[in-house]
C-alpha cells in the first residue's frame, strides 16, 4: 500500500490548494478529519471542522488568494502518514505573502487520506520592530 | 511495547528540560537523532546535530533559562512516535517568556527514543505593530 500513498497525499493537497484558490473554506475544512487540529502561530489549538473552516475563512478574508505546497518527505505507518513539506501563501497576483514549512499528520479515513494534525512555521524574518 | 513508551518519551523530555536548565546545548542536541530537523519560525529547516546545538545555544544566549513540556497526545507506530504537546519557555525567575504547542516525531534509535522532527508555534499574540 505504501508505494501508492504519495500520489494520494499529493492529490489531497491539490484539492486543498484548489479549494483555497476558490476561497472555499468549507471545502478546505472537509479535507480534514472530523477530529482534526490546526496548531497555528498566535493561537491556541484550532479543533474540529467548524473551527477549522472559520480559521481558513479568516485567512481568505485577510486577502490571501491561495497556496502552494511541496511534499519534502512522507512516512507511512499503516493508516497514518507523516508529511514534511514546504508551503507558500499567495496574495493577489500570486505575490508570495508568506513561505515556510510544515508537518501534517494524515489519517486514512473512510478510504480517503485526510489532514489530522497540521502545523506550519514561516521561514521569513520577523517584521522589523 | 506501546504501553510503556509514554514514560520513555516523558523521560527523554525531562532530560531535554534538564539540559536546557543547565544551559547545556550539547546535551540538548544529543537528545535528537543524527538526522534530526527543527522547523522553527523565522528560519529555514535546521538540520543535524551541529546546527541544532547552535540553534539551542542561540536560545540560551538570548537569556532563556529553561522550558517545560507537557505531552497532550502520543501515537506510537513501531519505531516512530508522534507527540503533540504544550510548552513554556522560561526567562530568569521562571517568568514565562513564551508558551505554545508542538509536534515532535520521535524515533527509537539504538534503544533510546530521540527527537527526529521538532516544530512548535507560539500561542501568544503577535507583538503590537
Task: Write structural notes for this entry.
The structure is a homodimer of 129-residue chains. With 129 residues, chain A is of the alpha+beta class. Chain A has one domain (2-122): Nuclear Transport Factor 2, Chain: A (Roll). The first copy, chain A, is 28% helix and 44% strand. Chain A is built from three helices and six strands. Chain A has helices at residues 5-22, 25-29, 49-61, and strands at residues 32-38, 46-47, 66-77, 80-90, 96-109, 112-122. The first copy, chain A, has a six-stranded mixed β-sheet, with helices on one face. Chain A is globular, with a radius of gyration of 14 Å. The termini of chain A are far apart. The interface between A and B is medium-sized, with 30 and 30 residues.
Defining key terms:
homodimer, 129 residues, alpha+beta, Nuclear Transport Factor 2, Chain: A, 6-stranded mixed sheet, 3 helices
User: Mind telling me the CATH class of chain A?
Assistant: Alpha Beta
Task: Please tally the β strands of chain A and state the result.
Answer: 6
**How many domain units of chain A?**
1
User: In CATH terms, what is the architecture of chain A?
Assistant: Roll
Query: What is the first-to-last residue Cα distance of chain A?
Result: 50 Å
The stretches of 5 or more residues of chain A where confidence is low (pLDDT under 50) are none
Give me the CATH fold name of chain A. Nuclear Transport Factor 2, Chain: A
* Mean pLDDT over the residues of chain A: 95
Helix content of chain A: 25-40%
Shape of chain A: globular
Oligomer: homodimer
**Structural class by sheet pairing and helices of chain A:** alpha+beta
The side-by-side strand order for the widest beta sheet of chain A comes to 2-1-6-5-4-3
Spell the H/E element sequence of chain A. Answer: HHEEHEEEE
The largest sheet of chain A is: 6 strands, mixed
What is the percentage of strand-forming residues of chain A? 35-45%
Biggest interface reads: A-B, 30 and 30 residues
* SS summary, helix count of chain A: 3
| Radius of gyration of chain A from CA coordinates | 14 Å
